[in-house]
Amino acid sequence: MFCYDEAMRNRLSLLVFFCSFLSLGPASFGQGATGSLDVTARIAPTGARPEPVRQFTLYVLTKSYADILKEAGAQFPLADREEFISNLKISPELKAWMKKHAVIDLTAPDVDKLITPDDVMDIPEFFAGYERSNSGGVTAGLPKPKYKESDAEANPDKYFKLKQEYMSSTKKFVESHPSTISGMETELGGVNPKFKWDKALQEHNQKVAQLAPDLAQTKYMAAKGDTDLDGHLLIKGLPPGNYWVSSLGLDAAAGDRRLLWDVSVTVQPGAPTQLILSNLNGQNFGASHQ
């Protein structure tokens, strides 16, 4: 009797285990399944057939490289234009004008079209530039100053009276001859902050360009690999999810074309996910560095 009961208990235990095993279902076996990414990279030069991108390193990231660049840029913040203008050693009037017109390069073509007769008279740097632009007899009828700087202390009343007369007559002349403003932007080089702004921007971009690839590889890289001679790369063992395939700002070249990639892709479990990198989803290298 004991042997019979023991045998029955063993059979029941085996039956319970088998039923439990079946209740797990197919989904339970797939919970640890990974996916793979099958990448083909080709570039078509102008007027030519696509060429494989050979022996080129591609990175699979969990964040887009564009967003990584922004993250890196936040660690080296660049002053916005208004803050930059506020810190310049120029007159308050010129600072206000630059902010109003969103102008950094005072010598850029067509800047003179933004300058009004009132601007010429109210902004010291503009008035000085206008005088230089129209001096030397190039502008007929332009008023000439009769005051002397030496009278500013020796005879201040005379100095003030003559200067006021000069400013008044010049204002009338500018208002009646607005065309004399044209070309005065070429005389603003001495107060033009564009070089300083470009230098600050270049230093910022260099720091970001140095930091971003390291940030991508240490914090957001899921995998990387080199394409073969056919421009093909297979990466296995990726957890299913969303990724970006990136060249980390490095360009791949074929003929006259130089491209960067930062392409989103969703990896599914099971069969390889196909991704083709081409001119269609690449970014022109020149355009990205303007």
Structure summarized in a few sentences:
With 290 residues, the protein is α+β, with helices and mostly antiparallel strands. Helix content is 43%, strand content 19%.
List descriptors.
about 290 residues; alpha+beta; Immunoglobulin-like; four-stranded mixed sheet; four-stranded antiparallel sheet; 11 helices; 11 strands
General description of the model:
By secondary structure, this protein is an alpha+beta fold. Among the domains are: 35-62 and 220-288, Carboxypeptidase-like, regulatory domain (Immunoglobulin-like), CATH 2.60.40; 89-192, no CATH class. The chain is 43% helix and 19% strand. It has eleven helices and eleven strands. It has helices at residues 2-23, 25-29, 65-75, 81-86, 92-101, 117-122, 124-134, 151-154, 156-176, 194-219, 285-288, and strands spanning 35-43, 51-52, 57-61, 221-226, 232-238, 241-246, 252-254, 257-260, 262-267, 273-277, 283-284. The strands form three sheets. Strands 1, 2, 5 and 10 form a four-stranded mixed beta sheet that branches. A hairpin with a 7-residue loop joins strand 1 and strand 2 (51-52). The longest helix is centred in the C-terminal third of the chain and has 26 residues, at 194-219. The protein is elongated and about 95 Å long. The relative contact order is 0.22. Mean pLDDT is 88; it is low at 14-30.
List the helices and strands and how they pair.
Elements: H1 2-23, H2 25-29, E1 35-43, E2 51-52, E3 57-61, H3 65-75, H4 81-86, H5 92-101, H6 117-122, H7 124-134, H8 151-154, H9 156-176, H10 194-219, E4 221-226, E5 232-238, E6 241-246, E7 252-254, E8 257-260, E9 262-267, E10 273-277, E11 283-284, H11 285-288
Parallel strand pairs: 1-10
Antiparallel strand pairs: 1-2, 1-5, 3-4, 3-6, 6-9, 7-8, 8-11
